[in-house]
Amino acid sequence: MKTEETENKVSEPYTEYGKYSYADYLTWQMDEMVEIIRGKVFKSAAAAPRRIHQEVTLKIARKLADYLDQKPCKVFVAPFDVRLPIKSKKNEDIFTVVQPDICVVCDRSKLDDAGCIGAPDLIIEILSPGSNRKELKYKYEAYEESGVKEYWVIQPTEQTLLIYTLIAGKYIPSKLFSPGDIVNSSSIAGFSLDLEEVFKDLD
Questions:
Q1: Per residue, what are the HEC states of 24-81?
Q2: Neighbours of 163 (CB within 10 A)
Q3: N or C: which end of the chain has fewer CB within 10 A?
């Protein structure tokens, strides 16, 4: 029989106490998007992402989808659950479940009806006000630990892109890219992105 404290934890998962798993996540009835990173729950802002965030997401996702057409890799945009197991793929043993803005999965055995289980090849996060700490610290650590080969962090208002590439289990940062640069993906062979096209006409 559940205690009142247990029931409160389920109804309010984004509190400071407790460690939550994907099994817990599946029981929650939430209106807003939540993510679990190393057992800690983060909820998104109640408001929808800002217009510039959505425009940048759509432009990049479209470029990737066009490039990957007829290729083994597939591109997905949020909301799309990515489970990052460390020791076991059992629901109760998975403590990181995220919804990247954009991700590319080339190993289709990682795809199931619930989303992706295992590290995508490429993850792209577009920063929103208030999300910087989550993206730059917590997700960085989780993506590095789980073996995401390439992690792009885009700051749409400053019009910059930083790429982290996984080398020998550690992320190596690129220089800071900006409009005028053409960036190449190390995990998606042959894919390049013109940042001038990504950031134009956003005001």
A1: HHCCCCCCCCEEEECCEEEECCCCCCCHHHHHHHHHHHHHHHHHHCCCCCEEEECCCC
A2: 22
A3: N
Q: What is the pTM of this model?
A: 0.88
Phi-psi region of 27 (alpha: psi -120 to 50; beta: other; left: phi over 0): alpha
CB proximity list for 168: less than 8 A, separation 6 or greater: none
Q: Binning pLDDT at 50, 70 and 90, where does residue 49 land?
A: low
Report the alpha-carbon distance of residue 103 to residue 144 in Å, rounded. Answer: 15
Per the structure block, which two tokens stand in for 25?
Answer: 């996540």
Nearest Cα residue to 146 out of 124, 120, 111, 172: 120
Q: Any bridge partners for residue 153, and if so which?
A: 125, 162
Q: Can the peptide bond before residue 79 be classed as cis, meaning omega within 30 degrees of 0?
A: yes
What number is the average pLDDT over the span 123-137? 79
